[in-house]
């Protein structure tokens, strides 16, 4: 077994080097901590650390980033559950059920489920990554061009319109507003300035990180502030009771389903873990016998979302390492680490630096395993943040979010955008619109318009070109079927508030 | 009128006027792109059209079924008790909305007004800086007079105001004031704990981001704020 | 088509300087500068900030990293890089222009600043609204195809194939109207009369992935950015956008070889400081950045990016000349393209 031998060599190299071990554990703990501190995320840590990797060896630098990636995706779940603040977009669906669980005093159960499922999803996807990187990459690069990616975005939006909003129309209006926000800045074909309102900083466009921080972290603080003003503030109950193995085993199908969804979404460049988490969550609701319990603290919501987004981490490494195509912000920064060491991720890495690749693979494998052990210990301490009086926690979270929003691009406009999103989020929460839908619209909108334009240019502006591309056609049809399903649900089952079946 | 309420009409009117505004503004960038015949406007205009359709659809639904409406399988976790809290705080009256909106204009006034005055005077450089400081002082004063009347509105405005001032005054000078402000709006009035917590949070942030991680936070563009920010960074690093 | 005639005059000087420099780059340009310089009144007393209007991973981010490292090695002054990406470099430029002109902040920028000023003179002119410290990278573009491509193998067969496709052939390029890439492509299509659909990719990785994965037929790019694909045997250049063949691409035809008669536009990257920064500090910065250009670490970096094939170095005056010529050249092109020049 080639794969096994390589893995063994990688493991030995990793753990025979004291500095390597130090960096490994530094990454594990750092990723979890930054993921778990409300307001900042693994992206903040990564953006901060990027210049420092120049002082490390290439092996150590890339290993550090991949470890942060694995543990950070898990760490973001903790704040999603405890504070309704997803550490990254891929943790947003975790908050749908995780936060209600905290309010019911079941924080421990939710976090415990997130720990187990993140570790399982991540580890399994890591194993598939080791076996499949080369063949999958070869297939995806030629099978997935702009038309396919656009079709996938369309499908993703059709699925997402049913997430989080009160009604069919509100779901779509939320997504459309997100798509509209994505238009601000330079257009992707001609670099023409759109909706900049004469403010040069708006030409950079609206970034999704400050938007997420604003909609989730800042608006949550406003809601708590309002409760303080009215005197209805109740400190959240703290529960450190972890789920039993039996409870988790009851959801084994959700885990398996989410691993499959997560892995296939994660392989696709540009969309990756976020779509994975939303689809994982969505499918959990769709397959459930009691869909009305979701959003009110159903542990399966946490399980599905966390398994799927961690399953996407291993998958996202495939296009990155084999083709140099990053799947998201963190993997894009990994490209930067490679380049600082005079290397480029891509076809050459496997030829020139196979050792490095396998050290990274081994590190990711053990990082996922270590989530279980370090996660339990860390959770017992992090959960105590809930004991700090909120008037002292609030300025801390707001300032951390300020640093987090600023560190991504170094633009103060991003801080303005974040707090504005906080205000808008505060009002939207009362109205039944979905802030998660807006965020997803914003993320997918940029990719959507760009790939649509590229697809149209490639197909010579003939819509029929989609018919020659079976994958694109299939995805678009699936999108329309999903759409038809939710329209059917919206118009023909109107008086049964819980009965929408949003898909096929 | 079916089941329509005033709220529904206002909601629909807001959506449709937003569409109208966005559509009208799209003529500002209605330019040809040589290699792309759909140009820069096709995509946003399609979205605007879809928004209009969805807004009309929602209006129709309200008219026919009122608030019961159709429902997604996954009701939001975040349509939680925010509504309840708002209700209790009487934050649904028109007066409250107007006063909050007026407060929210303050940060944007700071972002735009000094530039307009400077352009009108044909001034730049240090004159612009003086204008900005004067504007900031006036707007802070205005903000302070409103705090007691509308605590919640002030809470919503304070972070935005902080963000609007950051580019000029810098993180290092503004953060301590911001920390105290947030604590005050959260109902904390004891000076000693406020100062202690302020020092603790500021110290922790400086130690973690500036000392250990060398993050470059905005130092501000206007003296003496710029000098203070640069001094803090130099001392810590 | 007459724009080529009208702009030729302004471009001649530029082309001659570049080509004459081609011969002698073995000795480094600033070897003659003193190896140390006294700090004026203790400046710099703290770390410098380098504003980079692009992300850390791209060509600008990398050259900023390499130059900052070289200056720090030379002077012992550390440089914090402050990436402010967005708006094709506009955002970083705006933020830099608003920051205090005390000599503690410098900026990296590329030829986009010149073309932006050419299109809209309200935008800062890098030659006069800033002081160029050094231009440290000048490079040319090439057309690439896949190595395992069998429908065509060289420029001649490529043009023939593209013409036969009647506008259905595709090439990956960057997005901005009036950018260096798009203007060069216009030169090529006008001169050969072939019709090719350009497909806009504003990020590098998907652009290269599109060629590697067979989504497009060809790629327009600079050699330093696709070196890994060439070294891995995946891509090969079929045309160099220079009048003469550089030694490293001796078997790739130049413009002259295929009878294309236009003056190509170059990509260049350099470092700038506020024009009203104190004069003694500017002088020190000029020395530090120009001297750092010849640090072995920087030279090694430039070589790895194919930045030594034509002379990359320009001092302050040389950079001003380069920028002025470039701006004039773009203006002529824009006018002849019917773009609105403000």
Describe the structure.
The complex is a heterotrimer of chains A (504), B (237) and C (342). Chain A has helices spanning 2-15, 18-36, 42-49, 58-83, 92-103, 107-143, 146-160, 168-181, 208-230, 245-249, 252-267, 272-287, 299-323, 329-340, 347-352, 354-382, 390-409, 412-428, 435-458, 470-492, and strands at 185-186, 193-194. Chain A is mainly α and 504 residues long. Chain A has one domain (2-492). Chain A has a two-stranded antiparallel ribbon with strand order 1-2. In chain A, a hairpin with a 6-residue loop joins strand 1 (185-186) and strand 2 (193-194). In chain A, helix 5 (92-103) runs antiparallel to helix 13 (299-323) and helix 17 crosses helix 18. Chain B starts with 5 loop residues before the first helix and ends with a helix. Mean pLDDT of chain B is 84; it is low at 69-81. Chain B has helices at 6-25, 42-65, 82-88, 94-121, 125-147, 151-169, 171-185, 191-212, 225-236. Chain B has 2 domains: 6-72; 94-236, no CATH class. Chain B contains 9 helices and no strands. With 237 residues, chain B is mainly α. Chain C has 2 domains: 3-139 and 266-337, Bordetella uptake gene, domain 1 (D-Maltodextrin-Binding Protein, domain 2), CATH 3.40.190.150; 142-249, Periplasmic binding protein-like II (D-Maltodextrin-Binding Protein, domain 2). Residues 1-25 of chain C have low confidence and may be disordered. Chains in contact: A-B, A-C, B-C. At the A-B interface, helix 5, helix 8, strand 2, helix 9 and helix 12 of A face helix 1, helix 2, helix 3, helix 4 and helix 6 of B.
């Amino acid at each position: 077994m080639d794969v096994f031998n390589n893995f063994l060599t990688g493991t030995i190299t990793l753990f025979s080097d004291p500095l390597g071990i130090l960096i490994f554990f530094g990454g594990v703990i750092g990723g979890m901590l930054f993921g778990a501190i409300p307001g900042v995320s693994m992206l903040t840590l990564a953006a901060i650390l990027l210049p420092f990797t120049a002082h490390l060896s290439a092996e150590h630098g890339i290993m550090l980033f991949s470890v942060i990636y694995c543990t950070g995706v898990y760490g973001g779940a903790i704040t999603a559950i405890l504070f309704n603040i997803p550490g990254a977009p891929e943790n947003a669906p975790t908050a749908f059920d995780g936060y209600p669980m905290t309010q019911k005093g079941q924080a421990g159960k939710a976090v415990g489920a997130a720990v187990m499922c993140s570790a399982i999803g991540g580890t399994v996807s890591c194993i598939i990554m080791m076996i499949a990187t080369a063949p999958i990459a070869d297939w995806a690069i030629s099978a997935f061009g702009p038309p396919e990616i656009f079709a996938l975005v369309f499908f993703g939006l059709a699925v997402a319109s049913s997430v989080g909003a009160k009604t069919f129309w509100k779901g779509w209006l939320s997504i459309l507003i997100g798509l509209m926000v994505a238009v601000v800045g330079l257009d992707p074909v001609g670099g023409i300035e759109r909706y900049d309102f004469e403010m040069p900083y708006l030409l950079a466009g609206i970034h999704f990180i400050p938007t997420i921080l604003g909609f989730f972290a800042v608006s949550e603080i406003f809601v708590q502030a309002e409760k303080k003003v009215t005197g209805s503030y109740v400190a959240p109950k703290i529960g450190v009771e972890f789920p039993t193995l039996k409870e988790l085993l009851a959801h084994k199908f959700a885990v398996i389903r989410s691993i499959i969804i997560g892995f296939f979404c994660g392989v696709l460049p540009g969309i990756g873990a976020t779509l994975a988490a939303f689809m994982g969550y969505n499918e959990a609701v769709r397959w459930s016998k009691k869909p009305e319990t979701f959003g009110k603290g159903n542990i399966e919501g946490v399980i599905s979302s966390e398994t799927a987004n961690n399953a996407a981490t291993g998958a996202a490494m495939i296009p990155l390492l084999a083709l140099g195509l990053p799947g998201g912000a963190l993997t894009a920064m990994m490209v930067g680490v490679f380049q600082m060491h005079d290397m480029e991720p891509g076809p050459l890495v496997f030829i020139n630096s196979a050792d490095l690749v396998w050290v990274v693979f081994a590190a990711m494998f053990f990082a996922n395993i270590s989530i279980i052990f370090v996660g339990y210990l860390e959770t017992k301490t992090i959960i105590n943040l809930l004991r700090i009086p909120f008037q002292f926690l609030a300025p801390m979270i707001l300032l951390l979010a300020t640093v987090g929003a600023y560190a991504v691009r170094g633009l103060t406009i991003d801080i303005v955008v974040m707090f504005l999103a906080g205000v808008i989020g505060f009002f939207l929460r009362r109205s039944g619109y979905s802030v998660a839908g807006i965020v997803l619209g914003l993320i997918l909108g940029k990719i959507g318009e760009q790939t649509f334009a590229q697809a149209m240019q490639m197909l010579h502006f003939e819509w029929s070109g989609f018919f020659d591309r079976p994958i694109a056609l299939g995805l678009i049809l699936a999108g329309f079927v999903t759409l038809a399903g939710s329209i059917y649900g919206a118009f023909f089952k109107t008086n049964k508030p819980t009965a929408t079946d949003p898909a096929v | 009128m079916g089941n329509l309420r005033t709220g529904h009409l206002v909601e629909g009117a807001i959506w449709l006027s937003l569409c109208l505004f966005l559509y009208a503004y799209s003529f500002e960038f209605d330019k040809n792109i040589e290699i792309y015949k759909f140009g820069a406007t096709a995509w946003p205009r399609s979205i605007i059209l879809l928004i209009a359709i969805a807004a009309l659809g929602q209006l129709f639904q309200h008219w026919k079924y009122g608030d019961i409406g159709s429902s997604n399988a996954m009701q939001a976790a975040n349509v939680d008790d925010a509504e309840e809290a708002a209700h209790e705080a009487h934050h649904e009256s028109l007066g409250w909305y107007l006063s909050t909106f007026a407060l929210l204009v303050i940060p944007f006034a700071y972002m735009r007004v000094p530039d307009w005055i400077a352009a009108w005077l044909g001034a730049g450089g240090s004159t612009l800086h003086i204008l900005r400081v004067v504007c900031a002082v006036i707007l802070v004063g205005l903000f302070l007079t409103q705090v007691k009347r509308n605590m919640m509105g002030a809470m919503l405005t304070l972070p935005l105001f902080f963000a609007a001032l950051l580019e000029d005054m810098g993180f290092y000078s503004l953060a301590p004031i911001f920390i105290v402000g947030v604590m005050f709006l959260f109902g904390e009035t004891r000076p000693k704990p406020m100062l202690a917590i302020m020092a603790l949070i500021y110290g922790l942030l400086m130690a973690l981001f500036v000392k250990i991680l060398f993050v470059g936070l905005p130092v501000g563009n206007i003296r003496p704020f710029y000098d203070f920010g640069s001094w803090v960074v130099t001392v810590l690093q | 088509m007459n724009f080529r005639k009208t702009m030729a005059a302004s471009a001649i000087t530029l082309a001659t300087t570049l080509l004459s420099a081609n011969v002698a780059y073995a000795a480094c340009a600033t070897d003659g500068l003193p190896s140390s310089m006294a700090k004026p009144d203790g400046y710099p007393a703290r770390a410098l900030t380098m504003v980079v209007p692009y992300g850390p991973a791209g060509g600008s981010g990398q050259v900023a990293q390499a130059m900052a490292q070289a200056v720090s090695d030379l002077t012992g002054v550390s440089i914090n890089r402050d990436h402010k990406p967005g708006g094709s470099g506009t955002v970083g430029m705006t933020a830099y222009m608003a920051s205090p002109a005390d000599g503690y902040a410098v900026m990296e920028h590329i030829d986009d600043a010149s073309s932006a000023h050419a299109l809209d003179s309200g935008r800062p002119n890098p030659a006069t609204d800033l002081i160029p410290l050094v231009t440290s990278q000048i490079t040319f573009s090439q057309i690439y195809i896949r190595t395992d491509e069998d429908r065509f193998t060289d420029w001649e067969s490529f043009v023939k194939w593209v013409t036969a496709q009647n506008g259905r052939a595709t090439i990956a390029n960057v997005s901005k109207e009036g950018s260096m890439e798009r203007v060069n492509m216009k030169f090529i299509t006008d001169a050969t009369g072939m019709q090719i659909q350009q497909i806009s990719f504003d990020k590098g990785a998907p652009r290269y992935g599109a060629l590697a994965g067979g989504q497009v037929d060809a790629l327009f790019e600079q050699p330093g950015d696709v070196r890994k694909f060439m070294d891995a045997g995946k891509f090969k250049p079929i045309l160099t956008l220079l009048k003469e063949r550089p030694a490293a691409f001796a078997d790739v035809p130049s413009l002259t070889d295929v009878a294309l008669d236009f003056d190509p536009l170059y990509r260049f990257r350099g470092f700038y400081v506020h024009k009203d920064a104190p004069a003694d500090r500017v002088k020190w910065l000029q020395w530090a950045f120009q001297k750092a250009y010849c640090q072995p670490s920087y030279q090694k970096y430039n070589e790895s990016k194919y930045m030594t094939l034509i002379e990359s170095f320009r001092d302050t005056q040389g950079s001003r000349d380069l920028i002025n010529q470039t701006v004039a050249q773009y203006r002529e092109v824009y006018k002849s393209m019917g773009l609105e020049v403000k």
